[in-house]
Amino acid sequence: MYSQRVNRFNSQSGRTAPAILRRSQIINDKPICDNKTGFIRHPSGFPLEIKRRRFWERHDITETENPKIGIIFESMEYIKPGEIIDIIIPLQNKLETFTGRVILVKNVGEAFEIGLWLLHEEDASRARIVEQLCHIELYMQEKKYREGPYNLNPDRVASEWITKYASEVPSL
Prior knowledge:
This protein has helices at 23-26, 121-147, 154-165, and strands at 2-6, 9-10, 15-16, 40-41, 48-52, 70-75, 84-91, 94-108, 111-118. By secondary structure, it is α+β, with helices and mostly antiparallel strands.
Protein backbone atom coordinates (compact mmCIF):
# COMPACT_ATOMS: atom_id res chain seq x y z
CA MET A 1 0.00 0.00 0.00
CA TYR A 2 1.42 3.35 -0.99
CA SER A 3 1.55 5.83 1.83
CA GLN A 4 2.24 9.55 1.87
CA ARG A 5 2.75 11.36 5.12
CA VAL A 6 1.77 14.97 5.29
CA ASN A 7 2.81 17.29 8.14
CA ARG A 8 5.05 14.94 10.14
CA PHE A 9 2.49 12.31 11.15
CA ASN A 10 3.78 9.00 12.56
CA SER A 11 1.25 6.24 11.88
CA GLN A 12 2.97 3.71 14.16
CA SER A 13 2.52 5.76 17.32
CA GLY A 14 -0.49 7.71 16.10
CA ARG A 15 1.09 10.94 17.23
CA THR A 16 2.29 14.02 15.55
CA ALA A 17 6.05 14.42 15.63
CA PRO A 18 7.09 17.48 17.57
CA ALA A 19 7.25 20.27 15.06
CA ILE A 20 7.23 23.99 15.36
CA LEU A 21 4.63 25.30 12.99
CA ARG A 22 5.26 28.53 11.19
CA ARG A 23 2.63 31.18 11.75
CA SER A 24 1.50 30.76 8.14
CA GLN A 25 0.80 27.08 8.85
CA ILE A 26 -1.25 27.84 11.95
CA ILE A 27 -3.42 30.56 10.47
CA ASN A 28 -5.74 29.00 7.95
CA ASP A 29 -7.01 31.83 5.77
CA LYS A 30 -9.06 29.52 3.54
CA PRO A 31 -12.75 29.03 4.39
CA ILE A 32 -13.79 25.88 6.24
CA CYS A 33 -16.30 24.97 3.55
CA ASP A 34 -15.28 25.06 -0.11
CA ASN A 35 -17.81 27.25 -1.93
CA LYS A 36 -17.69 25.34 -5.22
CA THR A 37 -18.01 21.78 -3.89
CA GLY A 38 -19.54 22.22 -0.45
CA PHE A 39 -16.82 19.96 0.94
CA ILE A 40 -15.09 20.54 4.28
CA ARG A 41 -11.54 21.84 3.93
CA HIS A 42 -8.97 20.00 6.05
CA PRO A 43 -6.64 22.62 7.60
CA SER A 44 -3.22 22.57 5.94
CA GLY A 45 -1.39 22.86 9.26
CA PHE A 46 -2.95 19.68 10.68
CA PRO A 47 -1.39 16.21 10.13
CA LEU A 48 -2.87 13.84 7.57
CA GLU A 49 -1.70 10.56 6.06
CA ILE A 50 -2.78 9.32 2.64
CA LYS A 51 -2.86 5.61 1.78
CA ARG A 52 -3.62 4.57 -1.75
CA ARG A 53 -5.56 1.34 -2.13
CA ARG A 54 -4.14 -1.13 -4.61
CA PHE A 55 -6.54 -2.64 -7.13
CA TRP A 56 -6.78 -5.96 -5.20
CA GLU A 57 -7.70 -4.06 -2.02
CA ARG A 58 -10.63 -2.32 -3.69
CA HIS A 59 -12.90 -5.30 -4.33
CA ASP A 60 -14.18 -5.43 -0.73
CA ILE A 61 -15.30 -1.79 -0.73
CA THR A 62 -19.01 -1.18 -0.88
CA GLU A 63 -20.15 2.32 -1.70
CA THR A 64 -23.29 3.56 0.00
CA GLU A 65 -25.67 6.08 -1.46
CA ASN A 66 -24.57 9.70 -1.59
CA PRO A 67 -22.99 10.51 1.80
CA LYS A 68 -23.50 14.23 1.04
CA ILE A 69 -20.07 15.24 2.24
CA GLY A 70 -16.47 15.27 1.14
CA ILE A 71 -13.11 16.50 2.35
CA ILE A 72 -10.63 18.74 0.56
CA PHE A 73 -6.96 18.57 1.57
CA GLU A 74 -3.54 19.45 0.17
CA SER A 75 -1.07 16.83 -1.06
CA MET A 76 2.46 17.23 -2.37
CA GLU A 77 1.83 14.39 -4.84
CA TYR A 78 -0.66 14.10 -7.66
CA ILE A 79 -3.44 11.60 -7.04
CA LYS A 80 -5.40 10.50 -10.08
CA PRO A 81 -9.15 11.22 -10.13
CA GLY A 82 -11.18 8.07 -9.55
CA GLU A 83 -8.57 6.54 -7.29
CA ILE A 84 -9.76 5.13 -3.97
CA ILE A 85 -7.70 6.22 -0.98
CA ASP A 86 -7.78 6.22 2.80
CA ILE A 87 -6.96 9.34 4.75
CA ILE A 88 -5.84 8.98 8.34
CA ILE A 89 -6.08 11.89 10.77
CA PRO A 90 -4.53 11.66 14.25
CA LEU A 91 -6.88 13.19 16.78
CA GLN A 92 -6.58 13.04 20.57
CA ASN A 93 -4.41 9.87 20.60
CA LYS A 94 -6.73 8.10 18.16
CA LEU A 95 -6.48 7.58 14.40
CA GLU A 96 -9.55 8.55 12.40
CA THR A 97 -9.67 6.82 9.00
CA PHE A 98 -11.92 7.72 6.08
CA THR A 99 -12.18 5.97 2.71
CA GLY A 100 -13.13 7.89 -0.37
CA ARG A 101 -12.86 8.38 -4.10
CA VAL A 102 -10.76 11.23 -5.47
CA ILE A 103 -13.03 13.45 -7.56
CA LEU A 104 -11.09 16.71 -7.65
CA VAL A 105 -7.43 17.44 -8.33
CA LYS A 106 -6.33 21.04 -8.62
CA ASN A 107 -2.76 22.32 -8.89
CA VAL A 108 -2.21 25.08 -6.31
CA GLY A 109 1.39 26.26 -6.43
CA GLU A 110 3.73 23.54 -5.19
CA ALA A 111 0.92 21.24 -4.01
CA PHE A 112 -2.32 19.71 -5.23
CA GLU A 113 -5.74 20.30 -3.76
CA ILE A 114 -7.49 16.93 -3.57
CA GLY A 115 -11.26 16.53 -3.24
CA LEU A 116 -12.30 13.25 -1.62
CA TRP A 117 -15.86 11.99 -1.89
CA LEU A 118 -16.56 9.77 1.13
CA LEU A 119 -17.76 6.28 0.22
CA HIS A 120 -19.62 5.39 3.41
CA GLU A 121 -22.63 7.30 4.67
CA GLU A 122 -21.75 6.65 8.32
CA ASP A 123 -18.42 8.47 7.76
CA ALA A 124 -20.14 11.74 6.86
CA SER A 125 -21.16 12.85 10.35
CA ARG A 126 -17.92 11.52 11.87
CA ALA A 127 -15.85 13.43 9.26
CA ARG A 128 -17.78 16.59 10.04
CA ILE A 129 -16.95 16.30 13.75
CA VAL A 130 -13.31 15.30 13.17
CA GLU A 131 -12.70 18.22 10.82
CA GLN A 132 -14.28 20.66 13.27
CA LEU A 133 -11.96 19.34 16.00
CA CYS A 134 -8.96 19.81 13.68
CA HIS A 135 -9.97 23.42 13.04
CA ILE A 136 -10.53 24.04 16.76
CA GLU A 137 -7.08 22.62 17.57
CA LEU A 138 -5.40 24.95 15.07
CA TYR A 139 -7.49 27.87 16.32
CA MET A 140 -6.20 27.11 19.81
CA GLN A 141 -2.59 27.08 18.53
CA GLU A 142 -3.17 30.44 16.87
CA LYS A 143 -4.55 31.86 20.14
CA LYS A 144 -1.50 30.53 22.01
CA TYR A 145 0.74 32.22 19.47
CA ARG A 146 -1.04 35.56 19.73
CA GLU A 147 -2.04 35.68 23.39
CA GLY A 148 0.44 33.35 25.07
CA PRO A 149 -0.23 29.89 26.52
CA TYR A 150 -0.83 30.96 30.11
CA ASN A 151 -4.34 32.37 30.00
CA LEU A 152 -5.77 29.81 27.60
CA ASN A 153 -8.82 27.81 28.64
CA PRO A 154 -9.42 25.05 26.03
CA ASP A 155 -13.17 24.94 26.70
CA ARG A 156 -13.49 28.71 26.28
CA VAL A 157 -11.46 28.63 23.06
CA ALA A 158 -13.54 25.75 21.66
CA SER A 159 -16.74 27.59 22.54
CA GLU A 160 -15.38 30.74 20.89
CA TRP A 161 -14.54 28.83 17.68
CA ILE A 162 -17.98 27.22 17.62
CA THR A 163 -19.65 30.61 18.00
CA LYS A 164 -17.56 32.17 15.21
CA TYR A 165 -17.18 29.38 12.65
CA ALA A 166 -19.50 26.39 13.23
CA SER A 167 -22.12 27.84 10.89
CA GLU A 168 -19.60 27.57 8.00
CA VAL A 169 -19.40 23.77 8.34
CA PRO A 170 -21.80 22.10 5.88
CA SER A 171 -24.77 20.36 7.46
CA LEU A 172 -25.92 16.90 6.48
